[in-house]
Amino acid sequence: MTWLSPFHKQHENTCRVWGYTFQITSQHLTKDGTAAMKMSYDTLGEAALNKLNSLCPPQQQAQQDTRASEDAAVDARSSPAQGRPAKRDLFMLLRDHATEDEVLGQLWTKANTVPHWVSWEQIERGQEVFYRYGGPALTGLAFQSLLGGMGATRVVETLSRTGYLAKEFQQKEIEDYVALFRYIAYLTGTPDEFFETPAKAKAMMETLLRDEIEPSATSRVLANNILSCLEGQSPTFPSRSFLEANCRVRVFRNFRSIFCHLHCAQGSFAKSWEARVSLRRADL
Questions:
Q1: pLDDT class of 128 with cuts at 50, 70, 90
Q2: For residues 269 and 158, is the Cβ–Cβ distance under 8 A?
Q3: HEC letters along 134-167
Q4: Cis omega before residue 57 (within 30°)?
């Protein structure tokens, strides 16, 4: 959890949620703003998908795949080398029909237009940051986004918390990493303005923490299901207690109350590991 200095002054802009304290700034969305975002979506992407579905309906494609599979099973006896039937490729459909429809043309143009704020050198540096911290980054994704996200009605963006991946996560690396995911957001039809700067990304993370994290009974079931799915899996075949220790000590060290509300069991391994980590920090 976050420990406050006895000299820390709180005022009307001080917000404390789940043991985490931050100051509300102009970069934080209001609750009305986050409520409006819940009702927003990629209108161009949906319109384009509807157009593509009219060109090649999913039901029709499924029926064609079924018939083709049946025919292929019969033909395989006489022609084993025959390939599988082609699947519906939305990208190919979009490319081939972009000049025939205004909506499809808009999406194709947008997807192939590089925003003015993209720097390929910075994108490459952001990729290098991810590769360098790939192990802990993926661990954080599994535990913090998938498991921690179960505390919200939506899976929250964890980008602004990646500073814990290294003891000296340099400011330039943070900027490059955020820039990488801003471009990814653009390509996937996600509002990218919240990734303009690390400060804005952090403000959005804190906003979602304030407005979205509210564990329910379903949250607890799904969170524990994730641990059960990860238990004993290769390549390290971790035990349930080992996974609990990772959650409690490494991921939720600043959000213990969320961990408790998710009712993730705390085995003896987790407790003993946490005790050892606490002693080591005391020594440092």
A1: very high
A2: no
A3: HHHHHHHHHHHHHHHHHHECCCCCCHHHHHHHCC
A4: no
Residue type, 213: I
**CB-based contact 156:145 (threshold 8 Å):** yes
pTM of the entire structure?
A: 0.66
Cα-based distances in Å from 218 to 48, 150, 213, 229, 256: 34, 8, 13, 16, 19
CA distance 52 to 92: 10
Residue in the block written with tokens 């961990």: 259
Q: pLDDT digit string (tens) for 105-126?
A: 999 999 999 999 999 999 999 9
68: Cβ contacts below 8 Å, ≥ 6 apart: 85
Instruction: Say whether pLDDT at 82 is over 70.
Output: no
Of 158, 163, 118, 120, residue with least CA distance to 141: 158
Pick from 19, 12, 42, 11: nearest CA to 259: 19
Interacting residues of 158 by C-beta distance below 8 A, sequence separation 6+: 140, 141, 144, 145, 148, 149, 205
Q: Is the Cα torsion angle 181, 17, 265, 152 positive or negative in sign?
A: negative
Beta bridge partners of 16: 21
Quick one: which of 115, 104, 196, 195 has its CA closest to 157? 195
